[in-house]
Design brief:
- This protein is mainly α and 196 residues long.
- The chain is built from 9 helices and no strands.
- The chain has helices spanning 12-26, 33-40, 44-51, 54-76, 82-97, 107-112, 120-146, 156-175, 180-191.
Length: 196
């Protein structure tokens, strides 16, 4: 069955990546519709037809990006120990934060947690997702405590908070131009404090 209208004349995925990168570097409030259509190589009517409004596009860009980190958390906790899980998570994200093919740091730290009332729902969705990531990691740490791989007095919640704080710090450092190699050195130094 034929559909009405002209076929879409652009690559939706490529346009979404362009929008994501623009939001990443300029934030929601700093990105205009004109900026988006220029970066995406489409007209305003094509943007609205394919993505809805700017707010909907922002949500899709941020939540699509954030899904990658859910996958990284799930893959990391499959490591044999919580320490190895944390190391994998931190090293993988340090590599992601310094990937030459996109802006440095983390989109959710750099741009998504800023903005006015238009982005409240996105920030709330990210907060919920970050809480889920913390639960996954905390449960992995608790399993190591129960299995005798970590000291019995290890506070899984505090250790999880420490990891998340380090993760956000790595993002900020990457935003400030710190090299991938330096981030890995920071991770090595930080992991020396892991409970034994």
């Amino acid at each position: 069955m034929r559909t009405r209208g002209r076929p879409r004349a652009f690559d939706r995925e490529r346009a979404l990546v362009a929008a994501t990168n623009l939001f990443w570097t300029r934030g929601y409030d700093g990105t205009s519709l004109a900026d988006l259509t220029e970066a995406m190589g489409i007209s305003p009517s094509s943007l609205y037809a394919a993505f809805g409004d700017k707010k909907t596009l922002f949500r899709e860009a941020v939540m699509g990006y954030a899904q990658r980190y859910t996958t990284l958390h799930i893959e990391a906790v499959a490591e044999p120990t919580a320490r190895e899980a944390v190391e994998r998570l931190l090293r993988t994200t340090a590599d992601e934060f310094t990937d030459a093919d996109r802006p440095t740091g983390c989109l959710t730290v750099s741009a998504a947690m800023t903005g006015g009332s238009d982005t409240i729902d996105v920030r709330e969705a990210l907060r919920t997702q970050q809480e889920a990531h913390a639960r996954i990691l905390s449960e992995r740490i608790e399993a190591d405590v129960a299995g005798g791989l970590l000291p019995g007095d290890t506070d899984a919640g505090a250790l999880t908070d420490w990891v998340q704080t380090l993760w956000q710090g790595l993002s900020n450092q990457a935003n400030n131009g710190v090299s991938r190699e330096r981030l890995h050195t920071i991770i090595t130094t930080a992991l020396a404090a892991w409970p034994r």
